């Protein structure tokens, strides 16, 4: 099973939003960014995209150097938040993943996030040991999740898998790579219709166990 991270395993907003406001506060203090902090909806509605594309939507009229500074600050504040035990997994995620691992199912993550963030969340939540691979666009410099998932499948010799996620990029990555797509219908970040092409949808993460029994 290949899992997206944000909006699938991790309640992103519980860590992201404090770091988001701290990032803009710092950039305004430095003079790097001038004006009001963009609304939270701007970044929450962009989750699932590559970070560079997120900033293009959140701050479309600033220099690229501001985007890169935002990268640095956001990651730093998120790592500090994780170290302070901020940020929450969705209900049932830890127990369900442990149950899947106990059944001998190979577990992977494929995320469009930065390498430090993806690995940091799994490490601080104590889940790294049960995953065979933690793949991120930040580490492999991939331009789409389709390519990232294909790289993962090729490197690990995976011939059959489920792609589990909450955004259209997850659905596309699964279908384009010939995988069964499980759409997570509980995060609320997606736009209407993003999960229409998923093979099945789940209302809570633990529903995956029932799907396996079927």
TrEMBL record:
InterPro entries: HAD-like_hydrolase_sf, HAD-like_sf, HAD_2, HAD_sf, PGP-like_dom2. This is HAD hydrolase-like protein. It comes from Paenibacillus agricola.
